[in-house]
């Protein structure tokens, strides 16, 4: 089953990663599940080698390798899913996580913030609030004769 990445910033038409480029491995999941937890391989690990994938162009590949550097093992991106008891549901979850990670990593950085000065009204309101707070605190003291 191919991996579908929805359209978004940096991926205007979306992406389709062929199933042949994805590596799935299964193992026993920890946690609840009764007797079945000892016999079924419900944990799913989905891996994709970003350096050799044909789904990305060079610009996208460079952006992925930079933005996902902390999550990569070499150039391989791996995602685990073991929340569900059924392997089929965990496979769907792993694919959704992989697609979300790729979509976020392909988004361009936000434009730099342009510094602006505070308006005259906001400065006045801030100073009035400080004055009022100061008066409130001054009234908390011991009464003077």
UniProtKB/TrEMBL annotation:
<feature type="region of interest" description="Disordered">
    <location>
        <begin position="100"/>
        <end position="145"/>
    </location>
</feature>
<keyword id="KW-0378">Hydrolase</keyword>
<dbReference type="Pfam" id="PF00472">
    <property type="entry name" value="RF-1"/>
</dbReference>
<dbReference type="InterPro" id="IPR000352">
    <property type="entry name" value="Pep_chain_release_fac_I"/>
</dbReference>
<protein>
    <submittedName>
        <fullName>Alternative ribosome rescue aminoacyl-tRNA hydrolase ArfB</fullName>
        <ecNumber>3.1.1.29</ecNumber>
    </submittedName>
</protein>
<comment type="similarity">
    <text>Belongs to the prokaryotic/mitochondrial release factor family.</text>
</comment>
<dbReference type="GO" id="GO:0004045">
    <property type="term" value="F:peptidyl-tRNA hydrolase activity"/>
</dbReference>
<feature type="compositionally biased region" description="Basic residues">
    <location>
        <begin position="132"/>
        <end position="145"/>
    </location>
</feature>
<feature type="domain" description="Prokaryotic-type class I peptide chain release factors">
    <location>
        <begin position="17"/>
        <end position="140"/>
    </location>
</feature>
<feature type="compositionally biased region" description="Basic residues">
    <location>
        <begin position="114"/>
        <end position="124"/>
    </location>
</feature>
<dbReference type="InterPro" id="IPR045853">
    <property type="entry name" value="Pep_chain_release_fac_I_sf"/>
</dbReference>
């Amino acid at each position: 089953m191919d991996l579908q990445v929805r359209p978004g910033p940096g991926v205007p038409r979306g992406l389709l990663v062929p199933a042949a480029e994805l590596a799935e491995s299964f193992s026993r999941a920890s946690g609840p599940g009764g007797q079945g937890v000892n016999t079924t391989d419900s944990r799913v690990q989905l891996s994709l080698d970003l350096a050799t994938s044909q789904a990305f162009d060079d610009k996208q590949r460079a952006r992925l390798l930079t933005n996902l550097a902390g999550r990569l093992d070499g150039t391989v991106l791996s995602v685990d899913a073991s929340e569900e008891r059924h392997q089929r549901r965990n496979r769907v979850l792993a694919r959704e996580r992989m697609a979300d990670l790729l979509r976020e990593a392909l988004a361009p950085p936000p434009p730099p913030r342009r510094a602006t000065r505070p308006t005259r009204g906001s400065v006045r309101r801030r100073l009035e609030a400080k004055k009022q707070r100061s008066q409130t605190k001054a009234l908390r003291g011991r009464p003077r004769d």
